[in-house]
Write a structure and sequence with these properties.
By secondary structure, the chain is mainly beta. 10% of the residues lie in helices and 26% in strands. The protein is built from 1 helix and 3 strands; from the N terminus they run βββα. It has a 3-stranded antiparallel β-sheet with strand order 1-2-3, with no helix packed on it.
């Protein structure tokens, strides 16, 4: 089994999975997006699993009191 995923930067990643277990064992950049600013995203480069995860969100800037009052 194999899949293609699109990263947040627009690059396309080929993900190959073991046919019996379904565990992803290979992740390779298949196509680089024109606007990608990540130096490491060259076609043919292997990616680590954590590089497929979305960028963390800074939740410290959220005003939780305003959000709860708006939903009340």
């Amino acid at each position: 089994m194999s899949y293609t995923l699109t990263l947040q930067c627009g690059c396309v990643v080929y993900v190959s999975c073991h046919p019996q277990t379904g565990v992803a064992h290979t992740r390779i950049i298949q196509a680089r997006a024109a606007g990608c600013r990540v130096r490491r995203h060259d076609v043919g480069v292997r990616l680590f699993l954590w590089e497929l995860l979305p960028e963390p969100v800074d939740r410290s800037s959220i005003d939780w009191n305003a959000a709860s009052e708006a939903g009340a």
